[in-house]
Design goal:
single chain; alpha+beta; five-stranded mixed β-sheet; 8 helices
Length: 556
Amino acid sequence: MLSITSAELNYLIFRYLNESGFTHSAFTLGCEAGISKSTIDGNLVPPGALVTFVQRGIMYLELEANLSDEDLDADGDFQFLNPLDLITKDVDELQKIVKEKKEKYREKSHKKENANVEDDGVETVKGKVKQQRGQDKGRIEKEKDIARGKEKEKPFREMADANIAAEEAKGGVDDKRGDRGVEPMDICPPEETMTREISKSDVTVLQGHTSEVFACAWNPTGSLLASGSGDSTARIWTISDKSGSSAQSGPSSVVLRHFKGRINEKSKDVTTLDWNVDGSLLATGSYDGQARIWSREGELISTLNKHKGPIFSLKWNKKGDFLLSGSVDKTAIVWDVKAAECKQQFEFHTAPALDVDWRNNISFATCSTDSMIYVCKVGENRPIKTFAGHQGEVNAIKWDPTSTLLASCSDDSTAKIWSMKQDTCLLDLREHSKEIYTVRWSPTGPGSNNPSRQLVLASASFDSTIKIWDIDSGRLLHNLTGHSDPVYSVAFSPNGEYLASGSLDKCMHIWSVKEAKIVKTYTGNGGIFEVCWNAKGDGLAACFANNVVCVVDFRM
């Protein structure tokens, strides 16, 4: 008897979630089910496989219910049952339903010969399967035609559909930007590419994690680097002033274990982490719903336990007395760090909270998969401001250096700028063609350490591009097109002159913001989840899907 394994079913569900745009749910399932370690060849699995599988299963059950009882006639269209009946009832119950409904329609239908019953039924199923295949093929061809026709987009692979993307990449779609006056980044010739590749002597590979590294953050006052991984640990690495090509492991890092006994007791993937302003404490957020506070030496100071779902975002306020967390349980919590207890829980969202960001020491913003953004204040029982306008999941939010403008980005392919002075968005930035995963303000302009430089916003998207926006005019300044896969992370250097980007294409690019060109690049052996600069701006870290963290010595 043909059967399907749990690993195969998990993969089908993972593909379905990605193809349907539920990227966060797919990410969560992928981590829990270990999809990255699966031996299934994704190129052999067609798009819509789960839906097709379920539809064929339903048709088989329907066919079985109609054909199993030799005393009953079978109508060719098999419309006696609804899908819910097929899922919730066994064959005997289905046959009873079919029998009752057939009796009602017996007088209106012509009796067929028993010899033709099975053939007719099988032919009907074959027809439906053929129709479904045709629809799938038509959908795929339509998607390919759309991709070929997009003048603004280079072919790239979708993480969920590598097989389709590979076919599209063969099409050699030109990268043009229409009549908007925005020039794409010049792609350097091979010999020039060689000169901008970062030397191995300037890269330190930090080894020790045994699963994907999702997050990294430099200590703001020293040479310590924190990393968080799917192996249920965080690590604090001591980075020497001068990087080397050697791999660091063991004694060079302190391991912060998020489990007491067995590693596989419950998933405790470290999903987010953040240093306080003076670098004395590190906060980590985990898939088990707990926030933990550690000393810079790696000692566990306190465990904050109130969330009922994974924590996806964690931020210290500037004063360092409050810690803010956002969770899949739809809530945000402000923690009193000294008392190690919940100060206030905010339960306004109707779906998972994806990101949080402090406006000042007592007020902050939250965003969610429910497409809403709320600005909240400690001590207030209702949001002090509500921003509605996105048509999809809001993936990230960030306040500008003056804390007067809030940037947001969404699965609806737009980034928006909001002001506390009005309810509607100030700017609606619509140049991306796919989901925008993150946004970052430059550390420039009023309220920053570089007040004479222009304030800009960078947005990174699943369309493989990064866009830099002039916020004063709402105009697209630069379109950076050096990546070939979704871009998950961007970070400005402390002086605002450079922008680092990390992508699933395994490349970390360092761009000149002024010239909109790649000045340095590093290619690793796995997709990149996050990039971050140290306080001096001469060191850059990136965390990879192949379990390592790479530190680049960047001195121009």
